[in-house]
Amino acid sequence: MTNTTPLNVATRYFDALGRGDIPTMMGLLDTDVTWYQPGRNQFSGTHRGVDGVGRLLGSMMAVSEGTFGLTVEGTMMVNGDKVAVPVRFAGRRDGASMDMSGVDLLRVVDGKIVAVHLFSADGEAEDAFWGAP
């Protein structure tokens, strides 16, 4: 297995995220990455490019007062250039909290993550936590 297989890239991405190593995590994203954030909240929609994703994640950390976190909750599953990853994500802010399961679907091409599709177990609760657009 080489360092650029979809499973290896996804593993390095989530390992870096778990360590709080944002430069390594962001370095695994293609410069033109497309990030699909679910729901009907202030962060929902399509975010493009490393800079756009960086702004999104920075804003999510600000709103969650630095508490937003994500962990891998099960086995990563590969189908060609796609990796589905069961996750658990949580955060707190202003007396509100969120803790739920989800799935992150990464598309990896030439050793870089070119697309990220996120799925939440409870979209309404996630929308309530992040707030209206």
From TrEMBL:
Domain SnoaL-like: 11-115
InterPro entries xrefs: NTF2-like_dom_sf, SnoaL-like
Full protein name: Nuclear transport factor 2 family protein
Source organism (scientific name): Rhodococcus tibetensis
